[in-house]
Specification:
Number of strands: 10
Radius of gyration: 20 Å
Distance between the termini: 32 Å
Strand content: 15-25%
Order of helices and strands: EEEHHEHEHEEEHHHHEHEH
Structural class: alpha/beta
Bound molecules: 5'-O-[(R)-(carboxyoxy)(hydroxy)phosphoryl]adenosine, zinc ion
Helix content: 40-55%
Number of helices: 10
């Protein structure tokens, strides 16, 4: 009998539900983005996100069931993101999951959003361990050592801005709508790395990152040019920024890959959609002394979605790792507890 998990994700500004079979097959994956509502504020407004989640969630869950061609009677468990994320946004998904599990007498699984990004790769390829994951999103930039499916160690993380946040902030200075990652990526393809932005900590003997210096250097470059009445080439600016960000991400990942004898390198999270990062990581891993498999989800599974939550939850289902109804949202939830 196939295991079917109905997964719900509402940690930020995407309202999402999916039905996943045996952890590796997507029967449906519905994502309702709220971007247009948040765009005029230049970022996600937490209270607005919660309100939209409340309005959308029942419809999105129904759509996920319909597109999968199943009813709740065909579902074996309900999974939901417990954190990290915005507390009000998380609570909407959690309340829906608890209500559905209670009404249909199904087990509940609480899942970590970052684990979801990592296990999105189950849809691509068999995952083998130990593995190294570079998690790059709007809220996170971390290198994680995965000893097996359940034991994770944080090797390093950003000391200030997440890389996606940095993309979004420099995009604002360039006059691009939020979130700016994809627009900068597109512009970068037509530009050259001419501005020599800093590659913070690239040679340091640790796995932490820092992107605030890159952001400041970028903003200073643009403001100085504005004051002098000069115009900078947008494509060159984007290409220079992207080259600096990608160089550091790839160098640190390679350093960790050499130090830990991993079988696979995983790149995941919204910024894993970046074409420059995908290409540079592939080339670097193909050229290194002991090449290993590189796993990156397809573009539609890089950003927030609920299928990834179903993939992570399936591992918990198999282990019998179920929750009772007392759990709460954990906005700062740790992957390493
Ligand atoms: O994982 P995600 O959907 O949400 C969080 O958990 O944060 O990541 C969103 C981030 C945003 O900062 C967005 O600008 C960035 O991913 N992003 C990209 C690209 N597509 C999305 N950054 C760089 N290049 C892209 N192609
Ligand atoms: Zn995310």
């Amino acid at each position: 009998m196939p295991r079917r998990i109905l997964a719900i994700e509402s940690s930020c500004d995407e309202n999402a539900a999916a039905v996943v079979e045996n952890g590796t097959t997507i029967l449906s994956n519905v994502v309702a983005s709220q971007i247009e509502s948040h765009q005029r504020f230049g970022g996600v407004v937490p209270e607005l996100a919660s309100r939209h989640h409340v309005e959308q969630i029942t419809y999105i869950i129904q759509q996920a069931l319909d597109e999968a061609g199943v009813t709740m009677a065909d579902v074996d468990a309900v999974a939901v993101t417990q954190g990290p994320g915005l507390v009000g946004a998380l609570l909407v998904g959690i309340s829906a999951a608890k209500a559905l599990a209670f009404a249909h007498d199904l087990p509940l699984i609480v899942t970590n959003h970052i684990a979801g990004h990592i296990f999105a790769n189950r849809f691509v390829h068999d995952m083998t361990f130990p593995a190294l994951a570079l998690v790059v999103s709007g809220g996170h930039t971390e290198l994680v050592y995965l000893q097996d499916e359940t034991n994770f160690e944080l090797l390093g993380e950003t000391r200030d801005d997440a890389v996606g946040e940095c993309y979004d902030k420099v995009g604002r200075v360039m006059g691009l709508p939020y979130p700016a990652g994809k627009a900068i990526d597109d512009l970068a393809r037509d530009g050259q790395d001419v501005y020599d932005f800093p590659r913070a900590m690239i040679k340091d003997d640790h796995y932490d990152f820092s992107f605030s210096g890159l952001k400041s250097a970028f903003i200073n470059k643009v403001h100085n040019a504005q004051q002098r009445g000069e115009s900078l080439d947008q494509a060159d600016l984007a290409a220079s920024f992207q080259a600096a960000a990608v160089d550091v991400l790839v160098a640190k990942t390679l350093k960790a890959k050499e130090a830990y004898a991993v079988n696979q390198v995983i790149v995941c999270g919204g910024v894993a959609a970046n074409s420059g990062l995908r290409k540079a990581m592939k080339e670097a891993l193909a050229d290194c002394p002991r090449p290993v498999d590189l796993l990156i989800p397809p573009l539609d599974l890089c950003g927030d979605n609920a299928a990834m939550i179903g993939a992570a939850a399936d591992i918990q289902y198999v282990r019998g790792d179920f929750a009772d109804y007392g759990f709460n949202a954990l906005p700062g939830m740790d992957l390493y507890d």
